[in-house]
Amino acid sequence: MKNFQILRYLKKLLPIIIVFCIVATYGVYFKLSRSNTYIASEVIHYNDEQAEKGLAPTGEKLDVNEIKSSAVMSKVVDKMGLTGVYSVDSLISRIDITPIEDADKVTQKDAMLEEGEEYIYEPSTFIVSFASTSGEGPDFARTVLDEILDVYFEQFSQKYVNVAPANNTIDNIDKNDYDYIEMMELIDTSIDNTLSILYQRIEQNNYYRSTETGVSFAELADEFNYLRQVNVSALFSKIYKYQITKNKPVLVSDYTTRIDNNNISNEKDRSLIEDIVTVIDAYVTKMRESGNTNITYEYILDNLHERNVQDYVGDQTVTYDELIYSWRDCSESEEHAIIDSAYCQYILDTFTNCTGNCGGACTSSELTCAELSNEQYAAERAEVEREIDELLNELTALYDITMKTNDEYNKYLGASYISVLSSASVRESVNVTLYTAIAFFFLIVVCCGGAIVLGRAGDIINYIFYTDHLTELSNRAYLDKYLKAKDKKLLDDGVVYCMVDITNLAHINNECSRDTGDDVIRMFKNYLKENFGKSKTEYIYNGNGSFVMLTEESDYITVEDIMRLFRLRIDEREEHKDVVIEYRIGIAETFKENKTARKLLSEAIKNKKNYISDLNHKSVL
Amino acid sequence: MFTDILQKLIILTVGIIFVSSAAIIFFRQKNVNRAERTQIFKTAEYLNAWIILICFVTTIVYGIFNHFELKKTVHAIVSLNYSEASQALNSNGTRYNMAEIICDEVVERAIKKGALEDVTVKQLKNCLVVYPCVQGGVGDESQYHISTEFAVQYYASKDTAHLDSENVIKLITSSYKEYYIEKYTDNFSLDPEKPDFTQMEYMDIVSYFEKETQAILNYLYGMSEKNPSFVTENGSTFNSIAGKVYQFKETQIDQNLRSLILQNGIVRDRDEYVDRLSYQNKNVDFDRQKNEASYRLCNEAIDMYSEEMTRVVLVPTWDQAGKYYMGRTKVGVDELSVMATNFSNYVASNEKEIMDNNLVIDKIASTGQDTQISSVDTLIDSIYESVKGFEKEAITAGREYSRHRMNQCIAVSIYGISIMGELKTLILFAAFVYVSLVLHHISKKFPKKA
Questions:
Q1: Interface A-B: count of C-beta contacts within 8 A
Q2: Chain A residues within an 8 Å CB radius of B211
């Protein structure tokens, strides 16, 4: 059997291996690219110190998963115009939030916990990621993530920082539903609420100015105040002066009911106040009896020392204070209700007042005195309606600016409470280049291994089926296979087939012995190999003492010379000198008419010549 | 579109020649032996004049189409030059969003600005891509990176093929720059229209001027807080301009104009204005009553506190400067005292407002007015002009500061076709054509039959 030579096995299949590996690698690349996803990631950090305790600025629990809440995502879908294209849930499922823990803080926490002390630490830095498919591309992932965080920053600020919104409560107010004075009260209340919110904002950040609207909260407050001082008060005074109402009986009933409600509320408040006073007296008495009123300064200081006063521990209002506050609140509610009743009575007096111009008819009429007697009433009423419309338009425009300013302020606060440590970067979920390279090398290794295994298996098969065990040369089956393989191919120029047959092999076997016959065959093989030397020749033992040499890149004369040397070598042999060997040699070279293997072989057979090697006599041609 | 098809057609034709020639050689190689094959390749005319001529002509034609195709693609780099950009913020402190570079508003603005025809916002937006020039990672802190340079790429589609690519990208970037400056840089809203003072009550005009001057002062104080030492080209600081405005407000508006109107009882509609002030007084009085009640109740609540329940001690503590002082423990009485003081202030404020209104009512009732109206009107016009002048001065100073601080906010560079890139493509294509033609020429020499 042939020696185990790796290069020999590889050399044969190398082109196929390379082609197969390239095609298979492209297949792997294609598959990986198609199934790959793009992941856009951004690192955000909550700047508020409460965040490391897991709390939002308001003291509520900080829930980072709000980033992937449907409230945020639905806004993102709207903003990007993806409604109907993507479902909110499908986008939410692509978001991933990974906390990044501060190693120092974690060690500190572990150490404190080991000591048995309480230590709260929650990560305040997070990686927020969004995945897109290969079809959607990396830009989609980056854009969606940007939008998600934009919306989240704003919502975070709205929810946890800039809590009170300055909503327009008079937007789309239906004038048919309200009387003039009620409508003006609604407008006045709305302005009042807005102003108190704007003053809060001014207190927080006096110089904040929206770059989009170009106004600050202070300017907005001034605008609302101006409208209230000029337009609202002018309208109120006109409505009072001309007793302008849509329906006097309904108006009178409304304000009378309000007075009644105030009276009922006051009754309740008075009862509550009495109860609270009783509780306060009982509380003080009990505290006195139990010795809790004899508190010394040492006791208070000890209490202060026991608590870590450096840390704000929330509201520490005691029960006694709460009782006093309750008394004050209830009393205030009662007093304010009395004043409100006085206001309602003032309205009732204004609208039921009779100037005498109507001749007293208004007292029994559903119309006011001015409506009955003042000729200008209708014109003034129309004027008031027009002015209310104008005021509403002005207020709506002002509210729009307020909302825009507030929205920008929310974004500003959101960005100041949450900072971006690393802006959106996109990476592939699978490194296609790396995995393709790995696949290529893996395929090369597998294919080369396979080639070696196949090559060695081929050697074994060759040895079992296509090798003559006596001469260790290829056998007749191999020649048949060879001829069959060459059937449809043309031979190159310089191919020379040579046949050597030991014609009296049977005689040698019979006369000398079978071993001698085998020895002669082996001797022929050796001399043939020796003489063909390094020429590109394939040796086949065709059985019955017949050898076939298939030589390439040679010519007839060279092979003829080789065979002449071979004959000389036979004649000068040292072994089996007593044996007379008869043999035939046939040589054929490729020409135009015999370019196929079978033709060339039959030509060689045809060209055979007889030789005898009898060392007792001279070799005869 | 047409050039795109022709360009692809040329590549396809050359590709077909290459593949068919290679296939012919492959299938006919069995008809010749190795020596003949070698001979064919050795004797092939590699410098055949026809091959070189066809190769040259094809490359030139391809080059022309390729040039037109390349002209469809152009990109620009948008750089953020202000300091907040390195924190991924806009210059107004809100979060920076790269996608805004090609948002609908910017694209719409670009279409309007360039008067681009037969193209919709959606069609143009589909041709634009924006991405950061350098992006970091999230693996560890060393990879963190905040992008401040973004590439905007435009590739003409069949809907936008009629537009000049470089013009489109210029319009997009300049529109974005305008959009950004409008939306994110320091801004001061101007009252565009002069109010009709003849329709306004004189005291309302005073309020209007106060409101306007206060807005200018707020703007200047805000800018001064950002950079108190900034000096404009005229040698002013925000504080010096604010000082001028404040002085003007105090003397011209609060003293001269108000006094002139008040002392002469000047009013447009006496009855209506007096009614209005009376209403205001009535309304403020209800508020005063409520505040007074709250004040009284706070005091009563303090009185209710039992002496035994309100022990306080002095506690050593430290203030914000880190210095020790003796603080006292805080109890409910303290809170109520603060509340009572606040309510007392509100009551005082309400009372002042009522007294102010009463003064105006009295003056209107007691004095004639007609003599001074013309001088008041003149003063109003003069003040209005002055206020507008201050407005302009404040805005100019603010813009100067923005320019100085943000270095124009955004810088844009546009990159068109690279000649070297085009040449490289042409050389590669010429080589491809040459190989295909030579192969075709050689394939003809392989016999059809053995």
A1: 227
A2: 222-223, 226
Instruction: Give kind and range of the element (H or E) at residue A604.
Output: helix A597-606
Structure tokens at B189: 């809203």
Strand order in the sheet with A125-133: A95-100, A125-133, A37-46, A418-428
Choose between A171 and A330: higher pLDDT.
A330
Residues of A in contact with B141 (CB under 8 A): 421
User: Which contacts of B276-283 are long-range, i.e. CB under 8 A and separated by 24 or more positions?
Assistant: B276/A233, B276/A234, B276/A237, B277/B357, B277/B360, B277/B361, B278/A237, B278/B357, B278/B361, B279/A233, B279/A236, B279/A237, B279/A240, B280/A229, B280/A233, B280/B353, B280/B357, B281/B353, B281/B354, B281/B357, B281/B358, B282/A346, B283/A233, B283/A236
Structure tokens at A267: 């009754």
Closest approach of B189 to chain A, Cα-based (Å): 4
Nearest CA in chain A to B206: A226
Q: Tell me the whole-structure pTM to 2 decimals.
A: 0.69
Decide which of B370 and A414 is more confident.
A414
Chain A nearest C-alpha distance from B427 (Å): 26
Low-confidence ranges of chain B (pLDDT < 50): none
State the amino acid at position B112 in one-letter form. Answer: K
The mean of the pLDDT values for chain A is: 87
Show which of residues 531-560 on chain A sit within 8 Å of chain B, judged by CB atoms: none
Q: Please, are residues A534 and A510 in contact by the beta-carbon 8 Å criterion?
A: no
Q: What gap in Å lies between CA A479 and CA A486, rounded to an integer? A: 10
CATH superfamily of A468-613: Reverse transcriptase/Diguanylate cyclase domain (3.30.70.270)
Closest alpha carbon within chain A to B340: A328
Class of the CATH-defined domain A37-161 = alpha beta
A387 touching chain B per CB within 8 A: no
A620 — pLDDT class (breaks 50, 70, 90): very low
What are the domain boundaries of chain A? Answer: 37-161, 175-309+316-401, 468-613
Amino acid A619: pLDDT? 46
Cα separation, A551 vs A495, in Å, equals 6
- The three-class DSSP label of residue A199 is helix
Fold agreement (A37-161, A468-613): no
Length of chain A, please? Answer: 621
In CATH terms, is domain B74-185 a member of 3.40.462? no
- At B181 the pLDDT is 82
d(CA B265, CA B362): 8
Q: Provide the sign of the torsion angle of the four alpha carbons B257, B263, B268, B273, taken in this order.
A: positive
pLDDT, tens digit, 9 for 90 and up, residues B119-147: 999 999 999 999 999 888 888 888 899 99
User: In this complex, is the C-beta atom of B326 within 8 Å of any C-beta atom belonging to chain A?
Assistant: no
